[in-house]
Amino acid sequence: MTKPPPNGPTDRALARLIWPLRLTWAGMAAERAARAFWPVWSVIFVAVAGFAFGAVSGLSATALWSGLAVLALALAALITRGVMQFRLPTRDEALGRLDRTMPGRPISALLDHPAIGAGDPAAQSVWAAHLRRMAARAATARAPEPDLRLSRQDPFALRYVAATALAMAVLFGTIGRVGEVGEAVTFGTGPAIASGPSWEGWVEPPVYTGLPSLYLNEIFAESFATPVGSRITFRSYGEPGRISITTDVGPLPAESTDAYAQSVTVERSGDFTVNGPMGRSWAISVLPDQAPSVVLDGEVEGEPPGQMQFAFTATDDYGIASGTATIRLDEGAVHRRYGLAVAPEPQPALTLDLPMPFRGSRAEFSEVLLEDLSQHPFANLPVTLTLTVTDDAGQIGTVRYDVPRLPGRRFFDPLANALIEMRRDILWSRENARRAAQILRALTQDPEEGLDEGVYLQIRSAIAQLEAAPELITIETRDDVAELLWNAAMELEVGDLDDALERLRQAQERLSEAMRQGASDEEIAQLMQELREAMNDYMQQLAENAQPGEDRPDGGAERMELSMNDLEEMMRRIEELMQEGRMAEAQEMLDALQQMLENMEMTQGGEGGDGPQTPGERAMEGLQDTLRDQQELSDDAFRELQDRLNPGRPQPGQQGQQGQQGEMQPGGEQGEGQEGQQGQAQNGQPQGDGEGEGMTLAERQEALRRMLEEQQGRLPGAGTEAGDEALRRLDEAARAMEEAEGLLEDGDLAGALDAQSQALEALREGMSELGRALAQDQTGEEPGQGMAEGNMAPNRPMQDPLGRQAGNSGSFGSDEAMADREEAFRRSRELLEELRRRSAEQERPELERDYLRRLLDQF
């Protein structure tokens, strides 16, 4: 075929391939160079790394020459091998590589020509179209990336080892030291001339600073700073005396025959000068090591039952090495009376190691020291606290605090507290031994009065040892007596008691004493927890020892359950009062709790819930029935008032309400659903609808008043303060009932409701006072409000309109779960909002709105 005309598609396409072809050729040359010469640069990398890490200075001249000769021979052999293997790629090889990267190999097509059809116009037309298509494809040519992988030539990856060595030399070595090879390799005759004079030096800060060393040969600035105590090491090479140093930062060592190595410790700022060839000079500034410091975070506090704790913060510029807390008696702050009036015997200071962090920096940290010092002579006395910290440089930081009282165990049992006071006096001075023995004799004069035998024997043993010495007791005797008194006090305070009630009484007494002494919140919380645990143990013992009785609705198990809930409610209220700082009220409620438990013990030890009822129990149940009937009468009066004010009001669920409550129909008639719901009161007095059916509201009120007057004549506890108060309250209830009776007869339902509310309140207060009177008759003491909650709870707890227990038995709280109480609170809020809404409606009668406002005033 004929050649394409110049400047045809083929020539233009080949002209555009010049740069891709050149890049392809360069990539192929790089591939072949890498495969041929990779051992050369690997050896060079390793040699440079060795020189950078000071291989030259560590070798003798003979070894250095030998090493360099071996290195030169190895490089020559590797270079020769590489030159023999290396071959530059040709243009055709590069063109073929580029052509293989494109589909259809367009470059070969452009350089080809048809074998037949030279004279056929159709064939020529097809060939021209093919060339144009290949030219367009060749125009998109891109040089391929060179393949520089050497895994087949270097299966052990030695090139990476060499590259890593070079990287380490750049990061951690000194590349400038490679020039030492040229300085060391000098042709001449003497060894001194062969090596020539040179030097090097290092500045090493103290280890505790954690700072890196400095290489003097690389410090090109005229000055630098280093911590005090840094060590400068200087080493010279070559002819002795040619290179020397002068400095005033610290004393130089005395001259010696070995003048090649010298060192100096930096003690102050000054100059350091290297005299001789390549001499240098620096102005060195000393970084002073600051003294450590320590401060107390907050106050020295007690951690119940008897531990001392405080938090502190220590700081230093580099780190704290150790610390101590020293406690000394502050004699000037001691209230010198009783056993402390005599001069104290010398007591060594108490030294405690401050806790240090196990990990992390010690430059600044905070820690807490917790130690039990209850048995130390300084416990509960004013002391001075000295905190001392030391750094690695030996510098000391100290601070002193006055502590009004070194926290120790507080004893709330009176006898235990007295024993601990005698122990303190003996440890204060042995001169108090005679006085302490006399007081201990007085404490043990009547061992039958609640003193445990083991405690008594320990106290008597202490007395015998105190009185045995003719003059001052020995230190050993003093320590033995202190140990005996401590053990006796601990047994009295938290001893191993088998009787649950005794443990409960002790917990109550300790809590009362703690409140009187103004104990800390932590101590109060711990004693409250002990009281709660003792309460649970006691109630569990009562439940386990309860004898099964007859199948009665007011059996012992139910009463026990009610009492436990009441007790828990009282415990919660006592804790709230103490948290609010109302200690007097908390003490009153604690006394009431104690009286309640004594009454429960009395019932448990007597005939109990399964035996016949006492007159007091019968009277209390009669008053409970009267209270319940009065509450139902008030509800009926309120519903009738609503019917009168809103005659057409809807009454959803009226039938069910009548079935449960005996609701009155408009006009004062009572529904049939009331029958059977109210039983007979005590002593045959009318209480239910069986006798009240067909009675008006005024007649029912009169019947309740007469029943209350009869019950007043049979009330026990007359002649006591509580009994008289109960009668007075019941008289107020009877007068309020009589007033309500008259108002009901006159048709004044709103006024009658107010009088009935006063009667209900007086009835509840009278029942509470009656409980106090019954407790006084049975125990001979003046009990609190919590009298025998479990024995006098009603058979069917009354519920107010919100579904809560009305508390008409004088009990504290309710046995409902917290979820039920939350529901009751929600319903009470809804009822209050409804009352406010109705009282604001102007279309309602004025009489109803006035009654609603009086209800709101009670809230």
UniProtKB/TrEMBL annotation:
Residue spans making up a coiled coil are 487-603
Q: Where does the sequence pass through the membrane? A: 36-56, 62-83, 157-176
Q: Where is this region: Disordered?
A: 643-734, 775-825
Q: Which UniProt keywords apply?
A: Coiled coil, Membrane, Transmembrane, Transmembrane helix
Q: Which InterPro entries does the entry link to?
A: CHP02302_TM
User: Where is this chain compositionally biased, Low complexity type?
Assistant: 647-667, 677-688
Q: Residue spans with biased composition (Basic and acidic residues)?
A: 699-712, 725-734
Keyword DNA repair belongs to the record = no
Any idea what this protein is called?
Answer: Uncharacterized protein (TIGR02302 family)
**Species classification:** Bacteria, Pseudomonadati, Pseudomonadota, Alphaproteobacteria, Rhodobacterales
